[in-house]
Amino acid sequence: MINKTLLGLSLGALMFTAGSAVAADYKIDKEGQHAFIEFRIKHLGYSWLYGSFNDFDGSFTFDDKNPAADKVNVVINTNSVDTNHAERDKHLRGKSFLNVAKFPQATFESTEVKKNGDGYSVIGNLTLNGVTKPVTLESKLTGQGNDPWGGYRAGFEANGNKKELWLL
């Protein structure tokens, strides 16, 4: 039997772009490798397998002064799973894992955001393989400010609990 334990999911260095205000609606900036969705899986009990989803989109409403108004929505193309090994990726896309033919997308939609010390707890529903379950992503603001092109950007990292995230 194949070990299906997902040990981490990171929305690493997510960059969101908005207008000129911090309290705003943002869009995930996928251009130029500014956003990542990464994971690691325990492999055969003695090593780690790292991977990512290369095709995703999403949006985020962020107001540091009013986290209750914050929202996060992400859609992942499950066919874009990439572990840098073609045969393994084919297996991950198959029926015993992601079953991309039947479930081409995974989604995360927040239901609540709470300030948590220096970070935020982003609570929401993750749908994977047609199953929706509540998950909590621990997030932190990694930086924000005006960019050289006249826009405003904010960077975030988010990590999820292994037991909540792997729904297969």
TrEMBL record:
- Indicate yes or no for the key word Signal: yes
InterPro entries hit by this protein:
Lipid/polyisoprenoid-bd_YceI, TTHA0802/YceI-like_sf
Q: Signal peptide span per the entry?
A: 1-23
Enumerate the UniProt keywords alphabetically.
Signal
- Residue intervals of the Lipid/polyisoprenoid-binding YceI-like domain: 25-168
Q: So which domain of life are we looking at?
A: Bacteria
The record, for PANTHER family, names: PROTEIN YCEI
Q: Which NCBIfam families match?
A: PRK03757.1
Protein name according to UniProt: Lipid/polyisoprenoid-binding YceI-like domain-containing protein
| Organism for this UniProt entry | Yersinia pestis bv. Antiqua (strain Antiqua)
